[in-house]
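Lab notebook, bench 4. Still working through the backlog of constructs that have no structural model yet. Next entry is a single chain of 89 residues. Request: give me the structure tokens for it.
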Amino acid sequence: MTPTTDETGRRAWVKDSGLHTLYDLLRVQDRLGKGELRPEDLPERLRERVSLWSRAEVGPGDGQLGLLVKTTCLELMGRDRDSAALEIR
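Model written out:
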């Protein structure tokens, strides 16, 4: 599990590796025929998962996949990539 925070700043954990999240994003993108997705394009549950991943504390156990998922989710949610720790700690 990957530690993160919810919308209120409380501690939470993402239970999946992120591969499912990326797959779901690709499915939505394909279904909508869009080159770029926005948060409002996503079903509520997927948007919540993407939001959690955008704040995730990616560590060595998450590997490159965790970093890719976090980066993708940061961009999708419009969060400032420069202020987030994107390097695997």
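Notes after review: The chain has a mean pLDDT of 88. The helical segments are 19-32, 44-54, 63-77. Flag for follow-up if needed.
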